[in-house]
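Hi F.,

I've been meaning to write this up properly since the lab meeting, where we talked about keeping a consistent format for the predictions we share between groups. The idea is simple: the sequence comes first, exactly as it goes in, then the structure tokens exactly as they come out, then a line or two of notes. No screenshots and no reformatting. I'm using this chain as the first example so we have something concrete to point to.
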Amino acid sequence: MGRRYHCDYCGKSFPDNVNNRKKHLQGVHHIRLRKQHYESFRDALSALQAESQKKPCRRFQQTGNCDYGAACKFSHISPEELQRLTAQAEADKQRRRVATKTNASLEVWLKEHRQKSGLGEPFGYKGMLTAGSSAASGPPSMQPPTYCDVLECIPNRWG
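Output, unedited:
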């Protein structure tokens, strides 16, 4: 039995060869379902920009139904939904601003927290080790490697 291609957008499977796949991917039904899938992930700002540029669909306003559906070049969004999208887009902008400010002040907060708790600088022990004792008096594992040590080093091979 040959290989079969399964399209996640359409839920169809068919024998996989170049011609069948090309026909399917260029088909109207597949393109419509793929567009509908990606539009479900649009953020409020891009949806607002796209819908505010369109004129309202007369057929949708009169009957509540449009034969063109998602392919209609006019807007099917009511003024209430447009206001909701505007509010959601503003909330997203505000959330991004707050997130940017918190990331910028994280270092300041960490310094204040260290001062309040009396912890001091992280990795501050490195300066204490080099300043408080000479390298010759400590054990060999605490002595910094020399240039010769690095040249003589044979890396382990893990396998």
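Notes:
The chain has a mean pLDDT of 82.
The two ends are 40 Å apart (CA to CA).

If this format works for you, I'll send the rest the same way.

G.
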